[in-house]
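Suppose you are handed only these lines of text.
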Amino acid sequence: MTNYQELKHLAERLMSNNKGLLAMDESTGTCDKRFGALGIPQTEEYRRKYRQLIVTTPDLEESISGAILFEESLHQLTDDGRSFLDILQQKDIIPGIKVDQGTVPLSFFPEETITEGLDGLSKRMATYYQMGLRFAKWRAVIHIDAVLPTKTCIAANAFTLARYAAICQEAGIVPIVEPEVLMDGTHTLQRCAVVTQDVLKEVFNALYEQKVYLEGMILKPNMVLPGLHCLDQVNAEVVAHETISCFLKVVPAAIGGIAFLSGGQSPTLASERLNMMHLRYGAIMPWPLTFSFSRAIQQPALEIWKGEDNNIAAAQKALAYRAACNRAARMAEYNPTL
Ligand code: 5MM
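From them, the structure of the protein bound to 2-O-methyl-1,6-di-O-phosphono-D-mannitol can be written out as follows.
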């Protein structure tokens, strides 16, 4: 029987002490792209070395409550034979797992995608729970322009996200529900606000339909932003205002929390915008609000490391620093000059 209290408690732990989540769940293709751009060998051994660098970063646990892993990392060991899972647990960082199996074109809607991975998921969940994993993540990707996304795409992805979330909770695992409206494109901030609101409304309808326990789940959304190539860029005040206004309309107060993806924003912009949301709206937000960044925490460290052992310590400092910046942002204390 589903243990609702345990789910709620786990979600609270993930959101506690002003900490946030570290997404280190890049699939092999994504890792290859990021390594390739820096001349790092695109091999399993280098992915192991890199993730070893991350999990052994001193003081990471000061700012990070949970780490999202890619399946491959569940069985990887450090040079001295310790499992990544054990290291995270010893640091009191809750290990989680990306369980979706990536996106494919949505049939008859070639410009849009649907995320796969529901088949056999209940069985996989039981195994993950036994291994000590306590939360999971599933990402739906929503393309945006003047006409996209279609209603069909939103509905299909919302249904799939809700079905995944229900399967997680049945197994005692907290679902991170990630509907990502992409930042790529020339769309305006207002268009992103409309689409994000439509998507979230549909996602929460589907979650209700499938009886997902809101207190035992975390939403991982995009911030409301103008497209990367929109000529009309806006400051952090405007982003904070539009994002919080949008969420207040459609995100139930009952959920365990909100943890943003960074989506290709620079590390400093992502921190600055998170900071502004807390500074201006911290007193009225009904949900705990934090970060679940991958690139906005990892990118500076990856650029320092470049696959070289000599650079590990400096890369770890950069990683812990970006994580600490985001914890500060959650307290409205981020200052980019620190
Ligand atoms: C949007 O991507 C998620 C958050 O990362 P950013 O903060 O960099 O936007 C991230 O967790 C993503 O879901 C994983 O890296 C897995 O992505 P792929 O594309 O490899 O499945």
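What can we learn from it? Strands lie at 20-24, 64-69, 94-98, 103-106, 109-115, 135-142, 174-181, 218-219, 257-260, 289-293. The radius of gyration is 19 Å.
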